[in-house]
Amino acid sequence: MNLTEKQIKAEYIYKGKIINLRRDEALLPDGNTAVREVIEHLGGVCVVALTQENEIMLVKQFRYPYSEETLEIPAGKRDRKDEDPLECGKRELREETGATAQNYTFLGTLYPSPGYCGEIIWMYCATGLDFGELCPDDDEFLLVEKRPLDEVVSMILSGEITDAKTQAAVLKVKILKDGGKL
Amino acid sequence: MNLTEKQIKAEYIYKGKIINLRRDEALLPDGNTAVREVIEHLGGVCVVALTQENEIMLVKQFRYPYSEETLEIPAGKRDRKDEDPLECGKRELREETGATAQNYTFLGTLYPSPGYCGEIIWMYCATGLDFGELCPDDDEFLLVEKRPLDEVVSMILSGEITDAKTQAAVLKVKILKDGGKL
Q1: pTM above the 0.90 mark?
Q2: What is the ipTM of this complex?
Q3: CA B35 distance to own-chain centroid
C-alpha cells in the first residue's frame, strides 16, 4: 500500500522566532485532498551528561506553554538549519551546565509530535565531564541539578518527569548501560 | 530562585484543525519581557498494546511534516478538551488496530516539545487484547504490524524508530516488565 501524501499547496501563516507555521493542502493516497498544518523548527539537541558516579545533569526551568516548572536534560535549538547537531549539543551543555565532555555517543533522533511538527531532536550521551562556568541565554532562567541516573529513571517511570526527550534519552542510556553497551 | 513567567499579552495568530498558534508577551523573573510562541493542542493518547506473546502493535503511516513513513504505537488526539484520556486511548486503539483490551495501565504523561508546545500525551499499556475490525479515520492511511517487544526496543535503541511517544512508552514498558512491575 502506498501511503505517500504529496504537497499540492503551501501557505505560510506565520514566520516567528522559534517556529514557523504552514498550512498546506496535501494529495492523499486515495486521490482526495486534506489540510495539513505544519510547524517548522530548526531542530534541537539534547544531552544526557553522565558523570563517573552515574549521575546525570538536569535543568529545572519554567515552561511557559504549561505554566509549570519541568526537570529536563540540557538541550537547545540549533542556531541555523545547517548547524552540526553535535556542535549544538556541546554549546548547549556548556551554556546550561558549564560542562564540557570528552566523549559523545549518538543516541538517535526524536520526532516530538510527528502529526503536525517537523522538529528533529538529536540525542547524545556525554561522558568524561569537566565543569566550568554557567552562561545561559539572556531570557533563559534555570537551575542545574545533579541526580543519580537510577533516581531519574524512577522519576520517569513514576510520571514525575514529563519531558519527551528526557524520557527517551535517559531510558535509552539506562538500557544501554545495563546491557554493557555504553 | 523564582522561575515563573507571567502572561502579559496573548494574541491568536491562527486557530486551526489540529492546532492553534498564540503569540504572547511574558514577564520574566528579572522584570524584562519576552515573546513566547505557543502551540495549543487538545492533547492525545498513545497505547502500548501488548499481546500474551510479548508482541506489540505498531502502525506504519506517512508523516507529512517529515515526508516519511514512521512506525509508531497506536495513538490519536482527543476529540475535545475534556475528553477522558483513557476513553480516547480505547477508541484510538480500536480504530487503528481493531483491538480492545481488558486492562489498561497508566504510564504517565509526555510533553513533546515543552519550549513552545502545550500538547500533553497520556501513555497507557493495554493487555488482555481481543482483535476485531479496523476502522481508521477517513483521511488516515495506515498499515498495522505486530512485532516482538524486544525487537521494537532494539529498533528504538538503534535509532530506527524516531517517534517520541513510541520511544518513551515502549522503553517504559520494557523496564517495568523486566522489573516485574507490569
Answers
A1: yes
A2: 0.96
A3: 27
